[in-house]
Every structure is written in C-alpha cells, then in structure tokens.
C-alpha cells in the first residue's frame, strides 16, 4: 500500500479518520471530552481528571493509520490558533520529525470542502460551516453568524452575508454531529438560491468522506500544505485584521453595528463607517467589539486572565472579557460565589453588587470595580456550560464613552462550540 498522510477530521462535533477505507470515529465519550476541554488544561474522563494534551494524544492515537507517514488534521476554519495548536502539538508528539520534517499539518475544513466542485475557483467560492452555536461564512474574511434566532432567520442572515460578496459558488458544510445542521443547510441553500446567480452545493458527512478519499494521498511538493502548526486560513485572516493570532485571539469578521445580534452580518461595513465592528472569538466565547480597538491578552496584574479590547483614543476606555467553564451552575449560584469573593476583598473595591441585574436586556449578575484611574462595570452571564464576564471600563464619571460599545458586547456575548 502506498504511504500517505492520514486525514483526521477534528470538530466541530466529532473526531474521526477520513482515510483508509470507511470513516472511523473516536470513542464518543472520549471524543466529546476532548472537544469540550480543548480550551482547558484538564478534562474529566470517567470521573477522573486527565491532562488535555494527554487526552488528545490518546484520541489521535486511536485513529492512527498503520500505512501513513504523517497526518493532515482538518479543523473548523473559524477555530482560533490556540485550539489548532493543541491538536497539532498532540499529533506531532505521535508523529515525530526524526525521519521526515513537517509530518503533521493543519488545514481548515474549507481546504477539503472546496474540492466538492472541481471546476470551482477558490477565489470565487464561499464556504459556509455550521457549528452548534454559530455559522461561519468564509469568503475573503470569515463572518460568524450566531445561531441565537430561529433557523429561518439565521438562514436569512447567512444569505445576507453571502449576498454582500461577489462569489459565484456557495458550499454549505452540514456535519451530521451538529444538531439541526442538515435542516439549516437546506434553509440557507434555499435563501441563497432565492437571491439568484450563485451555484450552491450542500455537503454532508458522506460527501466529506468522499472528498477526503480523493484528496492527494502521496507526498508531493505541489500539494505540500503551507502551514505546519498554525491556524490555517483563519489564522492568516486574523493576522491581516490586527496580528492577534499570536495571542490566540481570532477576529473573524468586520461588520457594521446594526443593533440586535440577530441582524448582524447583513452588510459589510464601508471603510469610512465609524460603527464598524468585529466578531471576536476567544476560547469558547464570541462577542461583537469595535473593529479598530486593539485587542490583547492580559495574563498578569490584578484580576483574572482576560482579553482586553482598548479604545485607540483613550487607554482608560476598554472592554474586558473573561470566561470560565461551569457544570450545572445557576445564575443564583454564580451570584453567591461572586458575593463571597467580593466580601473577601477590601471594602470599596467592588460595589453596587446586584445578583438580579439586567444588562443589555439580559439577566445577569452586575457589580462595579473601583480603581484609581478608572471604574469597570461588570456583567456576568451564563450561556450553556460557560460563564462569561464582560467588563466595561471608563474614567470615573465617564461611562458614556463606553456605553454603546458595552451594550453591544454584552448583548452579543455567547458561547461557541
């Protein structure tokens, strides 16, 4: 048998080998544990903690193909560099570079999906990837539409994003492991066809497997992947939007601020539009932030590790975003936990605590952090198994400077798969 690079699909809802005969999936429980914990250091498997890097090595080892001499790991195109780094590091540990360098490469799903139509030109193709909590539309950039509205409305939003491009071919990825993906793909296809002028193809799991079988299997310089451990196309796009990939933060879309999240992405923002925003994905959280505000990770100093998005005109005006995994926690339980932590701090640092707050129309725990040069109004939300905290920073008495940005961020913040 000719040696080839094994192709392994990682995410959004499964981990499986796409080569060497029929698709072989990893053990369902271990697979979900690995995907759920990809942003963490440890996972819980059979009631016992397991290091995430070790867990990923175990999963990938179970899918090893004896006749292969390397791996191509296919991941969601919108995944941040931090996630891609976890899987490529685990794969590299199983396939060392002692004999042939660069034996492990990472490719976005769009690399495989665009093979569905041999005559399609990549520069003229839009790839739509459906995940549990968002739909990613990859054209020149990646626009993420959250699945927070009813499916027909989400489909219309996706079609609106596509209509804003000049691409002639639309490929819709509908993984069978993502709830409602097939039905949503059909709705999106219908909405795109109503607009006319674009060729549409829906791709299910069986079709993806066929594409993998036809992908080049032998090594050749002409098909050598360009990336050996980065975040593929998503990372390069993020770099063009501000160089955030190195920090593990991915900015995946620039769209105008148009109010409610359900209408996001209908039109691409003109360059002169000062309300231009970006959809930021960090770990398991996504939210809308100003496109021209620099973003960085803050790992030192007071407070939790967080992503900070700062106004270019005033360093004391900023957004802070933190996240924590939770298991069965309620908002009242979150309030109790926060109250205990606040009570342990010096008096006057955290004030205006409200366990039954409303922020941007959402039920939340709210409080204010008082520092020398600024105040931070915190909104703590629960979405599925993720606790999201959004801090809106401004100078004392200057909350108007961050008010609209804050409301938009809080309203749009949600967990992603």
How does this structure look, described?
This protein is of the alpha+beta class and 417 residues long. It has ten helices and 23 strands. The strands form five sheets. A seven-stranded antiparallel β-sheet has the order 16-17-18-22-21-20-19. β16 and β17 form a beta hairpin.
Number of helices: 10
Q: Strand order across the biggest sheet?
A: 16-17-18-22-21-20-19
Mean pLDDT: 78
Query: What value does the Rg take, in angstroms?
Result: 22 Å
Structural class: alpha+beta
User: Biggest β-sheet, characterized?
Assistant: 7 strands, antiparallel
Unreliable segments of 5+ consecutive residues: 218-274
Name the overall outline: globular
Query: From the structure provided, what is the oligomeric state, counting identical versus distinct chains?
Result: single chain
Strand content: 25-35%
Which labels suit this protein?
single chain; 417 residues; alpha+beta; seven-stranded antiparallel β-sheet; five-stranded mixed β-sheet; 23 strands; globular
Question: TL;DR?
Answer:
The chain is an alpha+beta fold.
Please give the structural blueprint:
Blueprint lengths: L3 E7 L4 E3 L6 E2 L2 H9 L5 E4 L2 E4 H11 L5 E8 L5 H14 L9 E5 H5 L11 E6 L3 E5 L3 E5 L4 H13 L5 E5 L7 H15 L3 E5 L1 H10 L17 H9 L9 E7 L19 E7 L2 E6 L4 E4 L7 E5 L7 E8 L5 H13 L6 E10 L2 E9 L4 E9 L2 E9 L5 H13 L1 E2 L2
Parallel strand pairs: 1-6, 6-7, 8-11, 11-12
Antiparallel strand pairs: 1-2, 2-3, 4-5, 8-9, 9-10, 13-14, 14-15, 15-23, 16-17, 17-18, 18-22, 19-20, 20-21, 21-22
Helix pairs in contact: 1-2, 2-3, 5-6
């Amino acid at each position: 048998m000719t040696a080839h690079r094994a192709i392994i699909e990682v995410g959004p809802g499964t981990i499986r080998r796409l080569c060497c005969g029929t698709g072989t999936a990893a053990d369902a429980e271990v697979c979900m544990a690995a995907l759920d914990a990809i942003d963490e250091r440890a996972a819980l498997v059979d009631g016992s903690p397991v290091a995430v890097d070790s867990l990923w090595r175990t999963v990938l080892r179970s899918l090893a193909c004896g006749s292969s001499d390397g791996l191509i790991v296919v991941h969601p195109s919108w995944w941040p560099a931090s996630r891609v780094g976890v899987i490529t590091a685990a794969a590299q540990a199983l396939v060392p570079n002692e004999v042939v360098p660069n034996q492990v490469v990472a490719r976005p799903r769009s690399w495989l999906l665009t093979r569905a139509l041999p005559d399609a030109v990549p520069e003229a193709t839009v790839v739509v990837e459906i995940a549990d909590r968002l739909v990613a539309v990859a054209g020149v950039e990646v626009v993420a539409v959250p699945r927070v509205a009813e499916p027909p409305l989400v489909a219309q939003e996706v079609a609106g994003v596509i209509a804003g491009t000049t691409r002639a071919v639309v490929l819709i990825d509908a993984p069978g492991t993502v709830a409602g993906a097939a039905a949503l793909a059909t709705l999106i296809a219908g909405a795109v066809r109503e607009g006319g002028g674009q060729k549409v193809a829906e791709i299910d799991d069986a079709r993806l497997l066929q594409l993998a079988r036809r992908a080049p299997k032998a090594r050749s310089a002409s098909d050598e992947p360009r990336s050996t451990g980065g975040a593929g196309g998503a990372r390069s796009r993020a770099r063009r939007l501000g160089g955030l990939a190195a920090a593990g933060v991915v900015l995946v879309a620039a769209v105008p601020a148009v109010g409610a999240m359900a209408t996001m992405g209908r039109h691409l923002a003109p360059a002169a539009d000062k309300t231009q925003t970006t959809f930021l994905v960090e770990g398991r959280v996504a939210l809308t932030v100003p496109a021209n505000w620099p973003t960085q990770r803050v790992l030192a100093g007071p407070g939790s590790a967080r992503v900070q998005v700062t106004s270019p005109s005033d360093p004391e005006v900023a957004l802070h975003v933190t996240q924590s995994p939770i298991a069965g926690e309620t908002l009242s339980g979150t309030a109790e936990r926060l109250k205990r932590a606040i009570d342990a701090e010096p008096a006057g640092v955290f004030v205006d605590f409200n366990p039954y707050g409303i922020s941007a129309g959402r039920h939340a725990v709210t409080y204010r952090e008082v520092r020398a040069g600024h105040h931070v109004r915190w909104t703590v939300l629960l979405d599925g198994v993720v606790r999201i905290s959004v801090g809106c920073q401004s100078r004392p008495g200057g909350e108007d400077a961050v008010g609209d940005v804050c409301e938009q961020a809080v309203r749009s913040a949600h967990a992603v798969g």
